[in-house]
Amino acid sequence: MSLEYKINAPVSVDQFIELLNESTLGERRPVDDRECIAGMLVNGNLMVSAWIGEQLIGVARSMTDFHYACYLSDLAVHRSYQRKGVGKKLQSLTQAQLGPRCKLILVAAPAANAYYEHLGFTNNPRCWVLNRDQQISS
């Protein structure tokens, strides 16, 4: 079967969890919290997916205003299809949905830094994270 890419195609919670687990991204995502995963799918506003038949083999899930900034929250490719250009194509198709001034922004796992640099991303060390259980200091 051939590989097909889709823009904003429906993805079920089970399909997404299976892909996260098969891509190693499941180690850093709440795959045991179906309600959270469902919210991630419903509230992202740009998702490019890769399919072989009915099997989801890749996804680039983003939050964007389409004009200035696009946060690529999840880039997952099934282990069996990694190093075959699927992730690169998902990112390229994501970027193609954005306006001409829109930046593609992501937070990479440490092991993936060289991958993104190779694609032309610029490293920016100014990312900050505030977990929900923490309070903003006065």
Automatic annotation (TrEMBL):
This is GCN5-related N-acetyltransferase. Residues 3-138 form the N-acetyltransferase domain. It comes from the Bacteria. GO terms for molecular function: acyltransferase activity, transferring groups other than amino-acyl groups. Gene3D superfamilies: 3.40.630.30. Keywords: Transferase. InterPro entries: Acetyltransferase_Butenolide, Acyl_CoA_acyltransferase, GNAT_dom. SUPFAM superfamilies: Acyl-CoA N-acyltransferases (Nat). The lineage of its organism: Bacteria, Pseudomonadati, Pseudomonadota, Gammaproteobacteria, Chromatiales.
